[in-house]
Amino acid sequence: MGFVAVCTLFISFFSIIKNFKNNILLLLSLELFFIGIALLFLNSSFYLDDINGLLTTLFILCISATESAIGLTFLINLKKNF
C-alpha cells in the first residue's frame, strides 16, 4: 500500500505543476494529493499498530472533502457571474 500512496502523491504533484492554469483540474489534483497523504498515514498506522494514524486519516479525508466542496462551489459561482 505504501507504493500506491507514493505513486499517488507523485502523480498528483506533477499534475498540480502541469495543470496550474486550470482551476478544476487543480482542485482534483489537490484532492488526489490529500488521498495520497491519507494512504501514507493509514499505512504507517497499520505498520505501527496505532490508532492515531487512523484518526489522522479520517481528519484529512474530512478536511479534503470540505475543501473540494467549497472550492467547486466558488468555481461554479465564478463561472455563473461571467
Q: What is the alpha-carbon Rg in Å?
A: 15 Å
Major sheet summary line: none
**What is the residue-averaged pLDDT?**
87
| CATH topology assignment | Helix Hairpins
Which characteristics define this entry?
82 residues; mainly alpha; Helix Hairpins; 89% helix; elongated
List the helices and strands and how they pair.
Blueprint: H1 2-18, H2 23-48, H3 52-81
Helix pairs in contact: 1-2, 2-3
What does it look like?
The chain has helices spanning 2-18, 23-48, 52-81. It is an all-alpha fold and 82 residues long. The protein has one domain: Helix Hairpins.
Structure at a glance:
The chain has three helices and no strands.
